[in-house]
Design a protein that fits this description.
Helices cover 32% and strands 15% of the residues. The strands form two sheets. Strands 1, 2, 3 and 4 form a four-stranded parallel β-sheet that branches. Helix 1 packs parallel to helix 2.
Amino acid sequence: MTAPNRIVFGAHFTQFVEPASTVGEPGFYGERYGRYLGERAQGGAGVIIAGQAQVHPTTAYQMRNNAVAWNEAAVPHFRQVTAPLHDHGALAFLQLAHNGGVNDGTWSKLPVWAPSAVANYNEPPQALERDQIGELVDHFARSAANAAAGGFDG
């Protein structure tokens, strides 16, 4: 793939995620975020990196308005973001994330997964076991496949 120019618009947190139908659940990217990034493409950015989308339930509740990437239901929502970028000739990239020990299990009721049990500023995390590492790798792969199906170029 070739970018139309060297202007890269970096990922950042906007809180433009469409809320889930259940209060407190993570949501999806949508038309609002697509319009926001599309305006940057229209303004001349050649590569646009959409802000982090979460790859696993243990990280999806780290802050409000987190976008889900591991669920296939994200694919049509991703298309609402990538279509306006492609319409203006920009490449669309997605930052996939698992935020490790900065997560908080208060909303998810799931343990916080991190490389070690050293606490950050929230609850002490659970050090990942080998099978959990494999699960995260699988979720990253699933999330990447969903992003590609949703039109992301990388």
